[in-house]
Every structure is written in C-alpha cells, then in structure tokens.
Amino acid sequence: MSIPKKLKERYTWFKQHSSHEDNTSLAFEIISMDRCGLISEISTKIYNLGSDISFFQSWTEYDGKCHIILQVDDKTKPEEILKSIKEIPEIISIETTSTNKKTWGKRIIIIGGGAQVSSVASGAITEADRHNIRGETISVDTIAVVGENEIASTIDAVRKLHRVGILVLAGSLMGGKITTAVKSLRAEFGIPVIGLNMAGSVTKVCDLVISDPVEAGVMAVMLISNIGKFNLLKVHGHKY
Amino acid sequence: MSIPKKLKERYTWFKQHSSHEDNTSLAFEIISMDRCGLISEISTKIYNLGSDISFFQSWTEYDGKCHIILQVDDKTKPEEILKSIKEIPEIISIETTSTNKKTWGKRIIIIGGGAQVSSVASGAITEADRHNIRGETISVDTIAVVGENEIASTIDAVRKLHRVGILVLAGSLMGGKITTAVKSLRAEFGIPVIGLNMAGSVTKVCDLVISDPVEAGVMAVMLISNIGKFNLLKVHGHKY
User: Fold this and answer.
1) Which residue from B39, B98, B129 is facing A114, i.e. has the nearest CB?
2) Cβ pair B145, B175 in contact under 8 A
3) Do the chains contact at B143 and A47, CB–CB below 8 Å?
4) A13-42 average pLDDT score
5) What pLDDT is attached to residue B215?
6) Interval A105-114: pLDDT, tens
7) Three-state DSSP class for B106?
8) What is the DSSP letter of B62?
9) Does A99 contact chain B (CB < 8 Å)?
10) In B, which residues are within 8 Å of A29 by CB distance?
C-alpha cells in the first residue's frame, strides 16, 4: 500500500518537531464576561498591533464566562497586548501563560471498544512516560465508542483536533464507513493510522497493523517521538 | 474538608448536563490560507450577522494552512454564515460539521506516573465504554509527567482545557506545589480532583481519595456521567 503524499510530509514534519520547540510564541489566558462580538474585538485589537494569532481557543463556562487561550507568533509585544485587551470593559483577567502545546505536546488518539482501548492505552501511557522523562511531551487521549456509524464519525472528527500525531484503532471488527473515514483522514489530513490485527476491511487501509494491543500503544509513541530514530516510513505497510 | 462554592456549582451543572444536549449550536469547519487578521475578519463577519460564537478553535497546520472549528449559538443562519465567510479570498473550504463537544463529550484527565496513570485509565476507559453505550460521551485523556514542578504546572494547565469533568492524580507521592495547584484548580475553577491514596500532602486537598487505581478510574466516570444518580456531593471527603 502506498503512503499518501500529505501523510508523508506531515509525518516527517511532526516527527522532527519536538513538542518543546515552542520558543517563538507567547500565550495569553483571558477570562471575560461573555457578549456577542467579544472574539471579534479581541482578535481585531491583536491584528491592529501587527501580531499574528497562531492558536486560539475560546469556550463558555457553566457560569456564562468566556475563557480564551490565545497564542501569538511574536514575543516582542506582551505589554502592548495586555494593555490593549484590558481596555475591553468585559475583561475580568488577562495574563501570559504557557502554551497548551508545551503542556500536552503531541497527542496519540485511541478509538474503539473499551477492552482494547484500555490495553492500547496501557502500552502507550507506559511508553510515553519513558519518552516524557527524557524531554518529550506526549499525551494519550482515548474514547470508547460502539457502532460503525459512531466510530466512523469519531474518526472523521480526529482532523478537528490539533497536535494529533497518530490514531490507533482498537477493536475486533471494523470496515465499511470506518474504512472510508480512515482513507480520508490519511489522504486528506495526513494523519497516520495503526490498526490492531482485526476482522473487516480497515486493516487494508492502515499504515501499520499490530496484533498485540500493548505493542500497538508502545509503537504509536515510538513512531511520533522526537527521541530515537524509529520511523513510520521504514515500517510502513507491515503487519506484526 | 469543605467543598468550594464554585466546585459545587460547576459540578452540579456538569453532572446534570448530558454531553449530547447540544442541539442549539451550529458548527463550522474552515480551512484557509493563513494570514495576519484572518481570525479578526471571520469573527467580525459572524458578529455582523448577529450570531454569538460559543466555541472557537484555530491552529496552524504543518503546511501553513489555518484550521478553524467554530460554533455559534444560533441555528437559523447557516447559509448566511457560509456565504459571508466564503467571500474571504484565502478561504479554501468551509462546511457545517458536528461539534467537538458532541464527539468527545465530557473529559476525564489523568496525570501522574506511567504505571498508575495506566491503571487508572484502564478503569476509566472500561467504565466510560459502559456509559457511552447507553448514550453518554465520556473521553479519557492522560499524560505521564515526572517531577513536582512539572506535575504542578500540568495541573495548572487543566483549567485551560474545555469540557473537563474531573481530574485524577495517579502517583505515589505528591505534595508542595502540587497541593497548591490542586487547591487553586478546585477553588478558582471548580474542577473536582480524585487522588490515589498516596504519600504527601495532596490527599488532604482532594475531593475523594481512592486506594485502588482501577476503582479510581471507574469512580471518575460514575461521578461525571449523566447516567445513574451517584453524586460527588454524597461521597465528598471520603477515603476508600
């Protein structure tokens, strides 16, 4: 099976890129009363200062307050940005903060049935520990889902997460719409996929098939870690 | 130990709130060439249409393209929003999509040493599977971290994630700055914390202390799930 061009490019970049290489960014944490137009006003103020927003996340909490984490690719104007945002009357607090990327690093996503997601996670977390101690930052995020449609739409949604290094499919039977979703995630979004050695057509479109769930989790970490030279492009298409 | 007011309020809201109750929102996925001012322009166009952005996430991918997921609390204007955003010359694609909240639901965060994070995750993932089959959506997100400063700053960063239901501390010894970080997360951000029964001062400030890691993971799911009546406020301060 061939490697989609986009996957090869994205993977090569992701592998080389340590999660700690984030020294050109400046992040801010803002808590504000919510009102229509708040994001527009904040982002326009930053634009007017000439800074480019490289990451932005906002959500409304249970008490109606708006929480914002934003990152600019420009370390030269922390005071100007703080001063300018504070002029908005609804702002409760704004402070500089570490970036989400620095804390949570690269993500491994594990999707499938509970028993197997647990086993893959056990391998991935234990191996991530060994890499994180040596300076990487790898987090392991999981969801247990049942049903072809549900699993397919969860795989589709992986592209809407940032910092995803690799997806592991942990199940006993996956095919149909799931296979279509895996094809699209790999070709259109460049995210590599490991599958357990399971029934169904999905293993035909995975980058790597691994029979043992703990090994699949360990391998997922080794494949995306900046520590060590093991590389997906060397083992692509293999079944272990 | 008393329960902070904010924690009681946020927990009560979170518990009652099913992850699937998201029928008033409309989400869009945008891929665009990146340029300074893009977020300002998109959010201003939505503001000018009178819609309130309730969730916004943007990041730059390896190829320099900007990916945006945004959600408005207004289902009435999908066509107007699509048309208006498409006028921006850099936009490559925009389509309506399901919300991240609907796919990934409520989050359990597990932080600590590899061996124990794995065990807690095993309990949490297996129990989440049982709740997700019955209509909940609970995901389990983990990171293995070593060192007092590193664990404390990771706990501080939990407030910068959205949809967090509960934090589980999985380790053998936690105190000092970690205890301070837990106090702040609970009192200022209302996020409950389960601790394993470990050495150090942290267990004195946790909402619940559980000796068995698998049970701690299972309990974390039961405490935030909308299915079943088990409630943190009933067992608060206990040690099992």
Assistant:
1) B129
2) no
3) no
4) 86
5) 98
6) 999 999 999 9
7) strand
8) T
9) no
10) 160
